[in-house]
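User: PF06551 family protein. Structure?
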Amino acid sequence: MFKKTIIALSLITFSGATLAAAPVANLKVTGSITPPTCTIKGQNEVDLEYVFDVSPGMFPVSGNLLLDAKTNNIEVVCDASTYLTFSSTDNRASSVLTAGVYNFGLGLFDTDKKVGFYTITMKNATVKQDASSAAQTVGVSNGTSYATSLSVDKTKKMAWATAASTLRAGQIFSADLDVRPTLSSELKTSSGDANLDGYATLAFAFSL
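Assistant: Predicted structure:
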């Protein structure tokens, strides 16, 4: 009985020594993820200017003055396929005549009076898969709503999309941005010159 036990222990010890000497292969996965580079008209920052010339005679007898919209086109070109969104920041937020997520401030006159506000509408959105592809008409999404045109909501991201929660990938993104100001009726009795001083920032974001 004693001898059998010794033999068994010897076998176990030998087996353990064999496993300890087994070769080991280490598998490593490496690489890099390079995000796309996107520009607007070949630049990282551009100014879209909307100029409105207003005279006192344009104001109605009572109430605020709603001006006709003016349009600028924006085109964002990326070097790889991506999804594109933008968020908006109103740099004149304290001067909004009527508060709302769609209303952007137009500055002040007579020291502390509010000029009015303006809205931005995104429409005629298209996406190209690359420079040689034809532009494909898409819709506009803010994450919850989807349509062929939407007012820019300061609290949400706007996107080129095919549904409210389905963004459209591509390399070249284009859209028209309409700006439509509403001016305060108090401008008719202003004691001096008043200027429209709207200033907003659209920050674009893209992903793989």
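The first helix runs from residue 2 to 20. The helical segments are 2-20.
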